[in-house]
Amino acid sequence: MQSKSFLLILVLTLHAQFVHAQWNRPLYNQLTKNLRSASQGQQKIRAMLAMGDYHVEQSYMVAFPQSLDTALSLAKQCEDLAKSTGSAQDLSDTYILYSKAYNYASRYPESINFARKAVDLSASVKNDTGVFNASRTLFRAFVYVYNTDSTRIITAENMSLAKKIGTKRVLGAAYEDLADNTKYRNLKNEISHLLDSAIMYYTATGKKDIQHLLTSQAWIYNQSGEHEKAFTTISKALNLAEELGDQTYYMIYLYDGYADISNKTERWETAEHYYQKALAVAAKYADRMVESDIALKLQRLMVKTGKIKESEDVIALIEKNYSQCNPTLLLQSLAAVLSHHISTGSYSRAEKTYQQLLPQMHQLNGRIERMARKDVYAALTQYHIYHKNVTLGQHYLDLYLETGEIMLYDKPLAHYMQFSIDSLNGNYIGAIRNYQLAGRYEDSIFNLHKNRQLTELEVQYDVDKRKKDNALLKQETELQSARAAKANYQKNLSLSGIILLSMIVGLIVRQYRLNQKRRKEIASKNRELEKLLTDKENLLQEKEGLLEEKDWLLKEIHHRVKNNLQVVMSLLNTQSYFLNDETAKEAIRNSQHRIHSMSLIHKKLYQSENISSVNMAVYFEELLDYYKIAFDTVNRIRFVLQAEPVELDPSQAVPVGLILNEAVNNALKHAFPDQRTGQITVSFKTAGQSRLFLSIRDNGIGMPGEISLSGFSSLGMKLIRGFSGELNGELKIHSAKGTEVSITFDNNNMAESMEEHYPGTQTITA
Amino acid sequence: MNGSVLIVDDMFIGAFDLQLILENNGIEVLGIAHHATEAFAMIASRRPDLVCLDIFLRGSETGLQIAERLRDQNIPFIFISANTYDHIDEDVKRLCPAGYISKPFRDQDVLPVINAALVSVQKSS
Question: Which residues form the Response regulatory domain (chain B) (predicted)?
Answer without folding.
Answer: 4-118
